[in-house]
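Pasting as-is:
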Amino acid sequence: MWGLSLVLNKVWRALFEPIAGFNRGIALLLISLVTGVVMLWIFGAVSNQNAIKRAKDKIRAHLLEILLFNDSLKMVFRAQGCALAHTGRYMGYAIVPLLVIMVPVVLILAQTNHLFESEPLEPEDAVTISARLTEWDAGLAESAALSVPDGLSVETPPLRIPETEEIEWRVRAHEYGDFDVSVNAGGQAFSKRLIVSDRQRLISRKRVRPSFAGALFHSAEPPLGKDSPIESIEVKYAPARIRMARFDAHWLVMFFIFSIVFAFLFKPFLKVEI
């Protein structure tokens, strides 16, 4: 899973990071377009299109029956019951395609989240870096230290939080660049990328030990070693928001709206019943 996620991450970085750096709204529109077309094509490929068309035609017919015979309570109730029955059949035909669609959509969402979840730092911005231990060890926590390259500075001594098994430092950026900070613990060094940029970038917020969830949602950097005493290293960037025209919202909201709109727009061209 990690191999697939890392490949997808490279593809997303090559295709969409330059566009997002220029205009994040355009990048989101393009990703939504890709997602909408992919969802539509998969739905058409794995669904029973003839059965769906018949169910939709039956629903329309019974709704029309309600309008035409609204003076007969018996006919109205009968038509409503038939319309509900065919709606249930339609939903049954759609369940399997929707489950299949979820797989590529989750992969697209995970990679897009790296691009739009976090705002990169700018010079003189400060950020918290947190290292979470796999289990709390007072000696290990006491020896843990953070080292940073030129262009960054550590402003605080480590804050050790046994309740959450975390150690935190505040770091300030002084210049643009891609920096590798290093958490030293138990005689080992564990690096984490930190981005200082004046444009939107594909950002790894957290580096984690190997796991299925980690491969899905934190694949912008290779995983920590499976025997690492550190569970994760996180740079707590400020959350990013997308502004388009007069609208300012979380990227997920716009992503789902645009993806659905594009799916319906391309429905006649791909000749898919949904």
